[in-house]
Amino acid sequence: MKLRLLRIELTHERDIVAARQRARQVSSLLGFDGQDPVRIATAVSELARNALRYAGGGTIDFALETRSGQSSRLQIEIRDHGPGIEDLDQAMHNPSVIGESKLGLVTARRMMDSFDIDSVPGRGTTISLSKIVPRRAEPLSRNRIDAALRELAAHGTQDANAELQQQNRELLRSLDELRLRQEELTHLNAELEDTNRGVMALYAELDERATHLRTADEAKSRFLSSVSHELRTPVNSIMALSKILLHRMDGELNSEQERQVRYIFQAAEQLSIFIDDLLDLRKVESGNSQLRIESFSVSDLFGALRGMLKPLAVNEHVVLSFEDVTDLPPLRTDQGKVSQILRNLVSNALKFTERGSVTISARRAENGSTIVFAVVDTGIGIAAEHHRHIFEEFTQVDNSLQRTVKGTGLGLPLSQRLAAVLGGTIEIRSAAGKGSTFSLVIPTELEAITNARTSAPARVLIIDDSEIERYTLKQFLATSRCKVIEAAGGYEGLRLARQSAPDIIFLDLMMPDIHGFEVLKMLRQIEETRDTPIVVCTSQQLNEPDREAAGAASAILMKSELSRESVLDILRHASEGHHAKHA
């Protein structure tokens, strides 16, 4: 419903003053407060001046528009029958080119919620303005509207001097508000400076702690390596002496003595395995694990494994079998490490399978560049909530066989690290009481990815607010030799980037705390990441301005195109570009 409130005829200069006064009165009676009545009055007076001076006159209509379920609006229409406005678009968007006469249009548009203009050369101009009535104002009932109309009729307009005084008062109030806002801004800037100093101090403290942690981790690795080497000699001596006694080289043993010596030998053997696993694990972590790349057939690998694993298959209720793999093409990778991983997986399967079977198989993946080894058992299985924990060092899951089956808690973590060295990963599919399937997924040719790696694992930082997206990318990155660091937001990503100095960064764009383009800009300003390869990884469709904003990135990867191959490919290209730049 649209209710007409007031009409003003524009014929003389004094009508401009009347239009301003009436606009202020109408807006105040409808509940506008603060600076809104001044903005409305200014917009109306500017357009009234244009209509009078450049069109010879016109009319101004004030109306109230009310709609069910929507906010009421003050509607103002200024109409003239002048020559119209030529080059209207240029007048609205670049008034300085046209001249000062069109500045009123731009001013009015900025003051109001809506602004529509219809101008035809030779046929006049019609401008429609509106301003939403504040919700905090008293509801506009019919009685209140009638009262406002009566008050408008009772109040006339004042002369120009009175209006000038009113404008001066409004200007003084505006200046006073501006001064208060300036003081608030100054105070806020001071608080921000204090906050920035605090953040910089926190960054410095985090950097220091990160350095201490790295130092402590290096010291731990050196200590474990040293202790392991020191333990190896006496453990080997115990095992050798136990064998001498068991072989009766220095005389017979009674049954009780033989049992005791076997216990000594088994304990020393377990300790030797633990030492070997610990040394291998630290060697992989430090990047000192050497690769021996050679070509070999899966059939030969399975044949050697069958001989090595046969002594472990001592349970007559469990069948150990190898599937036929004669049709598979040769592999080119580190046979020793592949064998070590499979031995660990099969050993675990035999330990935790009381009845049934343990089957080892291999197949070529659909992409043709990956091979999947699978160790399937009918054992006790692993509950889903423990799948992640079994790959943590020194972690063992409580189960019915734990008392009789001993382990170091290093076999699976070591196997996962070795798989990463080979450019692959280990995947698990298992449920409690339903057996397990451990799959080793590696490239058929290791040389295809060795150029993208250095001797130490690459540090990859993923900045993305979506946990699912981070997990997906991390799984794809598991096929390369990477240490993944995760950040759930832009600011956390900036902190971790300074702290960890990553070798490559995968950056999302749409994050709640700060947009990815801003993070990208700041990463290029931080000394630690100024030259770091940054891959923008997003589901957002990028237009030309977006791609220009992403120009500081090393590459752009659409999340819809994410795959193991695309991630490895972009990781290799980004690393090659980074190394070439610093060569």
Provide an overview of this structure.
With about 575 residues, the chain is α/β, with parallel strands linked by helices. The longest helix is centred in the middle third of the chain and has 87 residues, at about 160-245. It contains 17 helices and 17 strands. The protein is elongated and about 130 Å long.
- Rounded radius of gyration (Å): 39 Å
What kind of assembly state do the chains in view correspond to? single chain
Point out poorly predicted stretches: 448-455, 579-583
Derived from helix and strand composition plus strand pairing, the structural class reads alpha/beta
What sort of overall outline do the alpha carbons produce when their principal axes are compared? elongated
Strand order in the largest sheet: 1-2-3-5-4
**Largest sheet, described in full?**
5 strands, antiparallel
Count the DSSP helices: 17
User: How much of the sequence is in beta strands?
Assistant: 15-25%
Number of strands: 17
Range of helix content: 40-55%
Termini, distance in Å? Answer: 74 Å
